[in-house]
């Protein structure tokens, strides 16, 4: 008897790196959309925050976002992902904390979609990270950075994971009821808005002069960050069907239609009520439009996107532009980047509108269930009044749950953190800003003038945007440039020698010496012992 064994040709053998269940189009699409969401945070929100605050807070604001992004990733793969979307604990609302770095787990098929767990972990991380960065927006300009270092892992573990498990996990009670949260309106935006506002209450306000006048240091950077946020939302909503299908296409179109309508409505109403269109206000219109459409991006017809955008801006205008003095809560709590109304209130509105406009046919594409996810208006049209009212009630229940959860958990975290480190920077540090918090500044100071000396320190712009500190002898100022004086000749030699170098020097006692002391302090030079230094904005 012949015991010959037969084997498939190498080109027909199963590929362990590309199993049969993995869709070769869905997996790269999901990785791409996850990266687009990541770009919303790094660099999108980093440069948006860095440009939107006062010059003295640019580094601190950007660094808070960068730290949150990295910290969330570490916590996410160690325990956060499995707590949010893993097996249920005996305790309600919680998943089982566990590593998401084991190869056996990462190579298995994800709980939804036709791609591996490794892709899903990365995709969901991007959403968790941006949630913490949005919270940071409410706390800019006074939060102790050490307190932020503790707050990020604590809030991710005790608040975000509960919201995500309850609404997104197959084991969550709101998921089982049939809540519609297409792309994180409740878990991300409502949570970040409420948590940020609550944390702002516990941290306290900025300095009074900062609250009264907090001009952005770079509006063009704000526009760049807002543009990255807008375009990155293509991945935010386009990736949530977990598949390359028509639902993803509809979600992307709805997203941009709502955002554009919100922006244009904001501009027109600002011109009508205030006479001028505001760039800063328009950026808020972009963000609120993006937030509002998210829960229903793939669940409502394309015209719904435009309707949501218009309704959203009308709501924001009435409540925040015309009657801010009537809303005492907003005066009591200092929400630096207006996270409450751009995310929490917009999220509530989006969730409610989803309960009205959710279309059964489109929900069937996502949930594979035609009659269980019916907006109230479509319930009237179908004669199924009960289903429409039920969906509206579930949406309201989700809003109530997330609001209460984040008020309670965020308050507990803030109370615990302040037993370890102060939540708030000292008044002296808040007066200084970045240099006190990180010993760094986003922009070089304008300069100093040395009194009672035969020299002055001024500025010379060598290569924008870098400003280099160069001294200008008094004799040079009298002789002028190019008049052949010894001072002018000496200045030109030193200018050529020092060009491109960031070494502060001073003309003291007839010679050039390095200046080691900081602006605002006494000169650290023996020949300049009696010299007093004061800050001055001067250029030559």
TrEMBL record:
InterPro entries: Ammonium/urea_transptr, Ammonium_transpt, NH4_transpt_AmtB-like_dom, RhesusRHD. SUPFAM superfamilies: Ammonium transporter (SSF111352). Residues 516-540 are annotated as: Disordered. It comes from the Eukaryota. The chain crosses the membrane at residues 31-50, 57-79, 121-140, 147-166, 186-204, 216-233, 271-294, 338-358, 394-421. Keywords: Membrane, Transmembrane, Transmembrane helix. It is found in: Membrane. One of its GO terms (molecular function) is ammonium channel activity. It is a multi-pass membrane protein. Its main location: membrane. Residues 34-443 form the Ammonium transporter AmtB-like domain. Gene3D superfamilies: Ammonium transporter AmtB like domains. The keyword NADP does not apply. One of its GO terms (cellular component) is plasma membrane. Belongs to the ammonia transporter channel (TC 1.A.11.2) family. This is Ammonium transporter 2. It comes from Quercus suber.
């Amino acid at each position: 008897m012949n015991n010959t064994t037969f084997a498939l040709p190498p080109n027909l053998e199963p590929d362990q790196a590309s199993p049969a269940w993995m869709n070769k189009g869905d997996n790269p699409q999901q990785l791409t959309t996850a990266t687009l969401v990541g770009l919303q945070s790094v660099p999108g929100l980093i440069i948006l925050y860095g440009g939107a605050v006062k010059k003295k807070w640019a580094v601190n604001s950007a660094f808070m976002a960068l730290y949150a992004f990295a910290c969330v990733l570490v916590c996410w793969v160690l325990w956060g992902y499995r707590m949010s979307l893993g097996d249920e604990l005996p305790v309600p609302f919680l998943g089982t904390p566990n590593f998401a770095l084991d190869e056996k787990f990462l190579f298995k098929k994800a709980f939804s979609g036709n791609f591996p767990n490794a892709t899903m972990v990365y995709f969901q991380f991007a959403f968790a990270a941006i949630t913490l960065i949005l919270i940071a927006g409410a706390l800019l300009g006074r939060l102790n950075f050490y307190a932020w270092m503790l707050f990020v892992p604590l809030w991710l573990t005790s608040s975000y994971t509960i919201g995500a498990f309850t609404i997104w996990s197959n084991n969550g009670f709101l998921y089982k009821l049939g809540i519609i949260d297409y792309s994180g309106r409740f878990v991300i935006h409502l949570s970040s808005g409420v948590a940020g506002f609550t944390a702002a209450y516990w941290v306290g306000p900025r300095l009074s002069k900062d609250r009264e006048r907090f001009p952005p240091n770079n509006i063009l950077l704000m526009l760049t960050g807002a543009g990255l946020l807008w375009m990155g939302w293509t991945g935010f909503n386009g990736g949530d069907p977990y598949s390359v299908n028509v639902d993803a296409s509809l979600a992307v179109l709805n997203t941009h239609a709502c955002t554009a309508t919100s922006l244009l409505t904001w501009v027109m109403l600002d011109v009508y009520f205030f006479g001028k269109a505001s760039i800063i206000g328009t950026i808020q219109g972009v963000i609120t439009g993006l937030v509002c459409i998210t829960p229903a991006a793939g669940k409502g017809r394309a015209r719904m996107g435009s309707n949501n955008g218009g309704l959203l801006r009308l709501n924001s205008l009435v409540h925040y532009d015309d009657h801010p003095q009537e809303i005492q809560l907003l005066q009591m709590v200092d929400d630096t980047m207006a996270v409450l109304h751009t995310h929490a209130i917009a999220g509530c509105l989006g969730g409610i509108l989803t309960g009205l406009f959710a279309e059964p046919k489109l929900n069937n594409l996502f949930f594979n269930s035609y009659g269980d996810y019916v907006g109230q208006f479509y319930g009237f049209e179908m004669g199924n009044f009960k289903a429409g009212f039920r969906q509206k009630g579930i949406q309201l229940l989700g809003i109530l749950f997330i609001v209460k959860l984040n008020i309670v958990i965020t308050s507990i975290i803030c109370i615990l953190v302040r037993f370890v480190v102060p939540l708030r920077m000292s008044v002296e540090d808040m007066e200084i800003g970045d240099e006190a918090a990180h010993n760094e500044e986003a922009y070089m100071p304008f300069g100093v003038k040395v009194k009672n000396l035969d020299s002055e320190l001024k500025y010379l712009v060598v290569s924008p945007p870098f400003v280099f500190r160069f001294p200008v002898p008094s004799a040079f100022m009298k002789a002028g440039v190019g008049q052949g004086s010894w001072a002018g000749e000496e200045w030109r030699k030193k200018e050529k020698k020092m060009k491109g170098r960031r070494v502060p020097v001073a003309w003291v006692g007839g010679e050039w010496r390095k200046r080691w002391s900081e602006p605002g302090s006494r000169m650290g030079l023996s020949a300049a012992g009696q010299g007093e230094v004061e800050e001055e904005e001067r250029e030559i």
